[in-house]
């Protein structure tokens, strides 16, 4: 699904966020990305959906060589990738239904299919009864559920979650994790950057630790390994 070979990313301010990354991630895996703040976790995941471009090295995502991918083709790459953010990034003037439907409208899906698919994913995340509400009328956990629904409405092969429980209380965090687990069981690859020690140590998955732009640990059923 994803392969990185000798990937280097340096920012104009002199910071090296990726310093020779090498990794293989198979279709259907659930991967935690951990490490201290500023270690390079966000850069690692942003390079996968071409939010950031590596200076050198090779990144292959679902058969596409991202170094050779023309800018006009990046939207096609992202159709197969759902992204969930810590701060939800919902459109405040759109309803729950409209926020999720937007991801299908931009690829010009038929209205009948949009309605069917949006209601399916809202049922999956438990928000079918709140389709007409605005994001401001929802709790933080509900907003994150909408964000997850939006990320999976295209049936992507890969979901990238950047600190998806970072702004949520513990109980809500476990609910969001249960939802991501369910999506993963359906065959979707999940890559999740997180500082949540308890989640990583309780729900066991592959753990990749990044420090100073390098992968220092890669364990199949690993632990968080840092104080939190």
UniProtKB/TrEMBL annotation:
<dbReference type="GO" id="GO:0016887">
    <property type="term" value="F:ATP hydrolysis activity"/>
</dbReference>
<dbReference type="InterPro" id="IPR017871">
    <property type="entry name" value="ABC_transporter-like_CS"/>
</dbReference>
<keyword id="KW-0131">Cell cycle</keyword>
<dbReference type="InterPro" id="IPR027417">
    <property type="entry name" value="P-loop_NTPase"/>
</dbReference>
<dbReference type="InterPro" id="IPR003593">
    <property type="entry name" value="AAA+_ATPase"/>
</dbReference>
<dbReference type="GO" id="GO:0005524">
    <property type="term" value="F:ATP binding"/>
</dbReference>
<comment type="subunit">
    <text>Homodimer. Forms a membrane-associated complex with FtsX.</text>
</comment>
<dbReference type="GO" id="GO:0022857">
    <property type="term" value="F:transmembrane transporter activity"/>
</dbReference>
<dbReference type="GO" id="GO:0051301">
    <property type="term" value="P:cell division"/>
</dbReference>
<keyword id="KW-0472">Membrane</keyword>
<dbReference type="Pfam" id="PF00005">
    <property type="entry name" value="ABC_tran"/>
</dbReference>
<comment type="function">
    <text>Part of the ABC transporter FtsEX involved in cellular division.</text>
</comment>
<keyword id="KW-1003">Cell membrane</keyword>
<protein>
    <recommendedName>
        <fullName>Cell division ATP-binding protein FtsE</fullName>
    </recommendedName>
</protein>
<dbReference type="InterPro" id="IPR015854">
    <property type="entry name" value="ABC_transpr_LolD-like"/>
</dbReference>
<dbReference type="InterPro" id="IPR003439">
    <property type="entry name" value="ABC_transporter-like_ATP-bd"/>
</dbReference>
<keyword id="KW-0813">Transport</keyword>
<keyword id="KW-0067">ATP-binding</keyword>
<dbReference type="InterPro" id="IPR005286">
    <property type="entry name" value="Cell_div_FtsE"/>
</dbReference>
<keyword id="KW-0132">Cell division</keyword>
<dbReference type="GO" id="GO:0005886">
    <property type="term" value="C:plasma membrane"/>
</dbReference>
<comment type="similarity">
    <text>Belongs to the ABC transporter superfamily.</text>
</comment>
<feature type="domain" description="ABC transporter">
    <location>
        <begin position="2"/>
        <end position="228"/>
    </location>
</feature>
<keyword id="KW-0547">Nucleotide-binding</keyword>
């Amino acid at each position: 699904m994803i392969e990185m070979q000798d990937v280097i990313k340096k920012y104009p301010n002199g910071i090296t966020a990726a310093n020779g990354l090498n990794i293989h991630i198979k279709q259907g895996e659930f991967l935690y990305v951990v490490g201290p703040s500023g270690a390079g976790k966000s850069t690692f995941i942003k390079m996968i959906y071409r939010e950031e471009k590596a200076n050198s090295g090779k990144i292959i995502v679902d058969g596409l060589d991202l170094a050779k991918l023309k800018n006009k083709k990046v939207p096609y790459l992202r159709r197969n990738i759902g992204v969930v953010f810590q701060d939800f990034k919902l459109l405040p003037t759109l309803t729950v239904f409209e926020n999720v439907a937007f991801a299908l409208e931009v690829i010009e899906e038929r209205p009948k299919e949009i309605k069917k698919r949006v209601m399916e994913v809202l049922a999956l995340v438990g928000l079918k009864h709140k389709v007409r509400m605005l994001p401001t009328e929802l709790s933080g956990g509900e907003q994150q559920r909408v964000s997850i629904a939006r990320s999976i409405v295209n049936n992507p092969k890969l979901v990238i979650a950047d600190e998806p429980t970072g702004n949520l209380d513990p109980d809500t965090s476990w609910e969001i994790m249960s939802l991501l687990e369910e999506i993963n069981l359906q065959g979707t690859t999940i890559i999740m950057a997180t500082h949540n020690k308890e989640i990583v140590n309780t729900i066991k998955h592959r753990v990749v630790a990044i420090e100073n732009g390098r992968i220092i640990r890669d364990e199949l059923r690993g632990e968080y390994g840092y104080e939190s």
